[in-house]
Amino acid sequence: MSGDKRSAIAGLIMAFLIIYLGSREGVPVGTLSKPGTGFFPLILGATLGILCLMLLLSSLGKSTRREEKKGTSSLGKRRVALTFGVLLAYGLLLEPLGFLLCTFFLMFVVLKLVAGQRWSYSLLTSLLTTVASYVVFQKLLQTQLPPGILGLLGLY
Amino acid sequence: MDTLSNIGLGLELVLRPGNLILCFLGCLFGTLVGVLPGFGPGAGVALLLPLTFKLPPLTGIIMLAGIFYGSMYGGSTTSILVNIPGEASSVITCLDGYQMARQGRAGPALGISAFGSFIAGTVGTIILMFLAPPLGELAIRLGPPDFFAIMVLGLSLIAYLSRFSVLKSFIMAVAGLFAGTIGIDQISGEYRFTYGSFALYDGLGFVPVAIGMFGMAEVIENLEGSLAQRDIFKTRIRGLFPTLKDWKDSSLPIIRGTLIGFFCGILPGPSATIASFASYAVEKKLSRHPQLFGTGIIEGVAGPESANNAATSGAFIPMLSLGIPISVVTAMLLAALMIHGITPGPFLISEHPDIFWGFIMSMYIGNIMLMVLNLPLIGLWVQVVKIPYTLLAPLIILFCLIGVYVLNNSIGEIFIMIFFSFFGYVTRKHGFEGAPFLMGLILGPMMEKALRQSLLYSRGSFSIFLEGPICPIFLLMAFLILGSSILAWLKKRKRAIAAILSE
């Protein structure tokens, strides 16, 4: 399937969802003289549907081969997947583990596994950036970063 | 005189140490953003946007605007020295700028682009200063239908001027408008599409979405490619001051570039880029020796570099006088003001003269700072290009995460950002642009309010959109744009269908 066809279908699903959810959630469409909460979303859902149909139609004639050429290396894909993985982990663990541990972990994974740096360089750089960002944001700019378990141990 | 006392007020505000320092920091950071390839002004402003919420509103936008026009100064440096444009708006500068560097004339090329940028930035600010107040007064008389029409035209232009597929840009704009409806309904006060999530009650935050789609998605896309170190052309820079002949050759291109740039800047979309290309084309056309363009002549640097700077001033016109942002960066500046409860729009100049005039005066000061800053620091900027991306990328990721978290100390915002970095990455891969989506997100609530208010006034009749000169003219223009894109699309379809049938 070509990329355009995929995105058109994804867009169509979204358009249906907008119209369906809008009608279900009890957001009244209202009338033209008294447009309600669901009025604008309904127009947008319909417009999106039409535009995505146009995209779907124009993608039908295209050959898929030409587009696949742009595909990236498996190494690149692995890097992207790893980055998103570590980002999600950061979001999930930030409050339980705290800023210091999570940031060190994030920097280390990105430097060592995504960017493929040496062990010693990755460890040292992660340590330095974690400490530096802690000093700048927590101490100088007085923002509240989550202390996590280090806070419970009284080490924060 | 009124203007004079306002200028005095603005100047007095800018010259306060706090504002002066942040103006300087904004310009410095902007130049850095401009120098770094693969890190644009949109991402740079998004990154520092959360920081401004702790600052007074004027100080905040002074700094953010400094990033915007500062990046235009920085973009040219790498174009000239290493043939890598720091920004899309400096792509054209590579043509003659890099050739000049190879002939040992890197100094004058850098010099003229700094002086040209300075002249254009200053003249652009002067035009802005005299044009925005009368336009704002005119805008007070506009009603909801007029604002609706202006926004429809703005969004259509953004999609139409997109670098990639017009159809895809329209899809992104509509998706963005929908994303803008999430949260509380401004008219009825009801919640919609929130599904009990606290993070969505106030609507999708502009900052996490912007940082996700611009900052993070850009970094992740770059991480996907080759991470090998780039080659850097070694050159010695001698004498930054252009000769008398250089000045003679570039004075007219600078003047024309300034005017072209300013008026391109008012248009929505990637106006600084368009302005630089337009200026190059005009110079080549008017030149007595067009065949020399691309071989390293100074006109090819002076014109476009002036144009992209003047475009940044032009871009502030719709934002300051109408309250309608037409580019991603001005939308972010608008968001910075709105966080402080200041609604930009026709009343901004009369209700918050301190903000308006302080902002204008900061642009004069900023341009002076940038010129002084740029020339002696060129050596430093060349070193910056040598920072490996393998170090830069994790740092940008970390700053994005911290920046989003400290907004409300909420994990929810981090997940919104991660979602939109994924969305931004996937849509980029499929040839969709992020800018129309972001514009839709910020214009969505304004547009909905204008549309529903118009219909309420007219009791459901669409004839209200045909009243007054502004609304019908703007809607007609939007329809022409839409019509011409649909016609072009149908034509292409017809050929494709014919091709399939004849097979």
Structural class by SSE content of chain B: mainly alpha
Q: Tell me the Rg of chain B in angstroms.
A: 23 Å
Helix amount of chain B, in percent?
A: over 70%
How large is the share of residues in beta strands of chain A? under 5%
Description:
The complex is a heterodimer of chains A (156) and B (503). Chain A is mostly helical and 156 residues long. Chain A is built from 7 helices and no strands. Chain A has helices spanning 3-24, 39-60, 65-68, 74-97, 99-114, 119-140, 148-152. By secondary structure, chain B is mainly α. Chain B has 20 helices and 2 strands. Chain B has a two-stranded antiparallel ribbon. In chain B, strand 1 and strand 2 (191-192) form a beta hairpin. The mean pLDDT of chain B is 84. The chains are: A mainly alpha (156), B mainly alpha (503). Chains A and B meet through helix 1, helix 2, helix 4, helix 5 and helix 6 of A and helix 8, helix 10, helix 17, helix 18 and helix 19 of B.
Summarize the structure.
Chain A has 156 residues and is mainly α.
Secondary-structure map with pairings?
The complex is a heterodimer of chains A (156) and B (503).
Chain A lengths: L2 H22 L14 H22 L4 H4 L5 H24 L1 H16 L4 H22 L7 H5 L4
Helix pairs in contact in A: 1-2, 4-5, 5-6
Chain B lengths: L1 H13 L2 H19 L5 H12 L4 H26 L10 H10 L3 H35 L3 H17 L5 H16 L1 E2 L6 E2 L5 H4 L4 H19 L19 H23 L4 H16 L12 H24 L5 H12 L8 H4 L1 H33 L3 H20 L2 H19 L4 H25 L11 H33 L1
Antiparallel strand pairs in B: 1-2
Helix pairs in contact in B: 1-16, 2-4, 2-16, 3-4, 3-10, 3-14, 3-17, 4-5, 4-6, 4-13, 4-14, 4-16, 5-6, 5-13, 6-11, 6-13, 6-16, 7-8, 7-19, 7-20, 8-19, 10-17, 10-18, 10-19, 11-12, 11-13, 12-13, 17-18
Name some characteristics of this structure:
heterodimer; A: 156 residues; mainly alpha; 74% helix; B: 503 residues; two-stranded antiparallel sheet; 20 helices; globular
